[in-house]
Amino acid sequence: MKDTEFCSNLEIEIAVLDFWVEHRWLIPEEENGIRIFHEADLARARLIQDLVGPMGVNVDGVDVAMRLLDQIHGLRGRLATLLDAIRTQDQDTQRRILALIDKE
Q1: N or C: which end of the chain has fewer CB within 10 A?
Q2: How is the chain split among helix, strand and coil, in percent rounded to 5?
Q3: What is the pLDDT of residue 104?
Q4: DSSP 8-state secondary structure symbol assigned to residue 103
Q5: Contact 31, 23 (CB under 8 A)
Q6: What is the count of structural domains for the chain?
């Protein structure tokens, strides 16, 4: 979706959206110089609204929260890759790996 539809869905002004993009809280795709947002961006924007609205988090706090969210997302991806790699191993190797994990 483009800027206007995105802002309409969130009931925000374009200046607010520009601020969020400038702070890299949202990183839209670009097609021919036009920003394109997806459902994941909408969910992320709703989180930002909750943080700055009812929760009263300041700009620095939102920066931290969004960075942590990105790190968690990255870790989930790496964990999925690791699990796929473990699944490609023979059963004995899988059991040894899982036994080591269970010790933690």
Answers
A1: C
A2: 70, 5, 25
A3: 66
A4: T
A5: no
A6: 1
Residue labelled with tokens 């979706």? 1
With a CB cutoff of 8 Å and minimum separation 6, the contacts of 62 are: 23, 25, 48, 51, 52
Give every residue of the chain whose pLDDT is below 70, as ranges: 104
Q: Say how many C-beta atoms besides its own lie within 10 A of residue 49's C-beta.
A: 16
pTM: 0.79
Q: Which domain holds residue 42?
A: 3-102
For residue 17, what are the CA distances in angstroms to 49, 57, 88, 97? 11, 17, 44, 46
Measured between alpha carbons, how far apart are the two ends of the chain, in Å? 44
The SS3 call for residue 8 is helix
Q: Are 39 and 26 in contact (CB under 8 A)?
A: no
> For the domain that residue 31 is a member of, what is the CATH number?
1.10.1660
